[in-house]
């Protein structure tokens, strides 16, 4: 099955439909327009396109649901958004509201490889055994518990293994 390339706007529609459906079981065009702060005519046009791609079940004046393929793509978009938002909040100390807005813009451009590294790094920061690695504006990274490379097992790098020649 060929991968469908969606625009950032189309991804936003899938994400909005996913969240609305999580809350209400299905979405209505007015719910989507309200969530994305767009006109109803824009929603209708986008839904027609997404329907033609096989991503949503859409008929005028009816409930809108994601197809299995649309649901899978929406879950991927939501996961990227959440991972980026978490990274910005946990690792960089960005305000959650600001992080959410930035993640919404970034989620469309970040590759899977880079996103996986963001996730792994955020997990590393969260799991510091002494807890408290954080970002402080003006000072950069620091450990709130004053651990150093010498007393934090997670922070220590193993000695390089000599090449066996």
Main attributes?
165 residues; mainly alpha; Arc Repressor Mutant, subunit A; Diphtheria Toxin Repressor, domain 2; 2 domains; two-stranded antiparallel sheet; 6 helices; 4 strands; 53% helix; disordered C terminus
Topology:
Blueprint (H helix, E strand, L loop, with lengths): L7 H17 L4 H8 L3 H13 L3 E2 L7 E2 L1 H23 L5 H11 L5 H15 L6 E4 L3 E4 L22
Antiparallel strand pairs: 1-2, 3-4
Could you walk me through the main structural features you see in this protein, from its secondary elements to its overall organization?
With 165 residues, this protein is mainly alpha-helical. The N and C termini lie far apart (47 Å). The radius of gyration is 21 Å and the shape is elongated. It has a two-stranded antiparallel ribbon with strand order 1-2. A hairpin with a 3-residue loop joins strand 3 and strand 4 (140-143). It is built from 6 helices and 4 strands. Helix 4 crosses helix 6 (112-126). The protein has 2 domains: 8-73, Orthogonal Bundle (Arc Repressor Mutant, subunit A); 78-143, Iron dependent repressor, metal binding and dimerisation domain (Diphtheria Toxin Repressor, domain 2, Orthogonal Bundle), CATH 1.10.60.
